[in-house]
Amino acid sequence: MAADGLASKALKVKRELGENTPLLSDEELMGLSVRELNHHLRGLSKEEVARLKQRRRTLKNRGYAASCRVKRVCQKEELQKQKMELEWEVDKLARENAAMRLELDTLRGKYEALQGFARTVAAHGPPAKVATASVITIVKSGANQAAYS
């Protein structure tokens, strides 16, 4: 009982300093563990205890909401960064695809020119002597025709 008398005496002193001033600052109220808070609230009226506990809950909820907003902003920034990286990768792959299609068209033209030459040789018999330059010319001209088609 002597300890209770001292605690209530200390609280009365705090109240006498200013009736409307809070017993605990917001930082103190949020920083206290439940056990410490209950220790500080001993001797107060039920209404005062309820008011302080509600104030603590409100402050904690504000903190949670603020951290949630920060987390959401960070997630949004991270997702935007990932989106930009993926868009860059899609552009890069589109360029590679276009280059490969061009190379494929070139190779297809060369293949068709060689097939045409092979059909000509098969139909008319092998020529007495075929110059390498003429085969290259046929291949090049076949590729050019494919490019202009």
Topology overview:
Elements: H1 2-17, H2 26-31, H3 34-41, H4 46-124, H5 132-148
Helix pairs in contact: 4-5
Distance between the termini: 105 Å
Average pLDDT, rounded to a whole number, is 80
Total number of helices:
5
Strand count: 0
Organism: Amazona guildingii
GO molecular function: DNA-binding transcription factor activity, RNA polymerase II-specific; RNA polymerase II cis-regulatory region sequence-specific DNA binding
Pfam families: bZIP_Maf
Coiled coil: 42-110
Task: Write a structural description.
- By secondary structure, this protein is mainly alpha-helical.
- It has a domain of 104 residues.
- 85% of the residues lie in helices and 0% in strands.
- The protein has 5 helices and no strands.
- Helix 4 packs across helix 5.
- The radius of gyration is 43 Å and the shape is rod-shaped.
- About 11% of the residues have low confidence.
